[in-house]
Each structure stands twice: as structure tokens, then as C-alpha cells.
Design brief:
This protein has three helices and no strands. It is mostly helical. The longest helix has 20 residues.
């Protein structure tokens, strides 16, 4: 059953590697972007804006989830 589901969704999962090694290779651009973001120096104001954006994101996600299934609250 799982194999059938995987092959059914395969056209939509182009970012998913067929092997662990392939997945690691596919993840490299995202990891490079993340490393750059982590090393980036930001101002206190920018940090505050990013935190506010994250808080808004969390609220939006939880609004649409049923009680007892909230991810962030």
C-alpha cells in the first residue's frame, strides 16, 4: 500500500530523493541558505520584526486546527 501511495504522489515529490544519499544531495541548497541565515548579523529591530512575524505565523496555523490539535498554543 505504501509503495502504491509513493508512486502515486511521485510526480509531486520531485524534491524527495530515492535514496538517503540523493536526499542529502537535494538538501544541500536549503542547508546552505540556512547556514547563511544563521551566520547573518541582524539588528535588534530586525530580530523583533522576525519574532513578530513568527508569532503571527503560529497564530495563523493554530487558528485553522481543531481544539486539542494546536501546534503552537
Amino acid at each position: 500500500m505504501a509503495n502504491n501511495t509513493q508512486s502515486h504522489f511521485a510526480p509531486y515529490l520531485k524534491h524527495r530523493g530515492k535514496t538517503v544519499e540523493e536526499q542529502i544531495k537535494l538538501n544541500q541548497p536549503a542547508l546552505a541558505w540556512l547556514r547563511k541565515r544563521l551566520e547573518e548579523e541582524i539588528t535588534q529591530e530586525e530580530a523583533k520584526i522576525r519574532q513578530e512575524d513568527l508569532d503571527k505565523f503560529k497564530q495563523i496555523i493554530d487558528i485553522f486546527r481543531p481544539e486539542g490539535s494546536k501546534l503552537y498554543s
